[in-house]
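pls design
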């Protein structure tokens, strides 16, 4: 967290994220904070989540509709991907050596180096599928 001030708002958002297991939108996080009695503006929530994502404190992903979601990951310093349920938001962190090989192969095929990527999988978890 070099260069980032530890504010009351940042601490409250971090504590909330520590207790969540799935990705949430800034609006959802704002609502949960309000339910806890935290007086933090929505713009501050967006700004703080963006700073935390940039600092590597939280993972963020963009849904198919373009909405950004945030989550505190169990392995923040290791490269990983996410499998996310479209219905309930359940999230599983996954690592895939075959995926990483594929990315390197595609990059090399097109003459690219130093490639960074994000890859998220969206589907329906077993619980939600069974409930249908």
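designed seq:
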């Amino acid at each position: 967290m070099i260069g980032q001030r530890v504010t009351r708002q940042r601490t409250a958002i971090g504590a909330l994220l520590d207790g969540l297991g799935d990705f949430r939108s800034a609006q959802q996080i704002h609502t949960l904070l309000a339910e806890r009695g935290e007086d933090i503006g929505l713009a501050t929530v967006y700004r703080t989540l963006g700073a935390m994502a940039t600092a590597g404190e939280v993972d963020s992903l963009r849904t198919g509709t373009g909405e950004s979601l945030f989550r505190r990951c169990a392995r923040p310093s290791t490269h990983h991907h996410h499998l996310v349920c479209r219905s309930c938001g359940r999230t599983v962190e996954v690592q895939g050596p075959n995926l990483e090989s594929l990315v390197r192969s595609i990059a090399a095929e097109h003459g690219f180096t130093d490639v960074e990527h994000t890859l998220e999988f969206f589907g329906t978890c077993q619980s939600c599928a069974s409930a249908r």
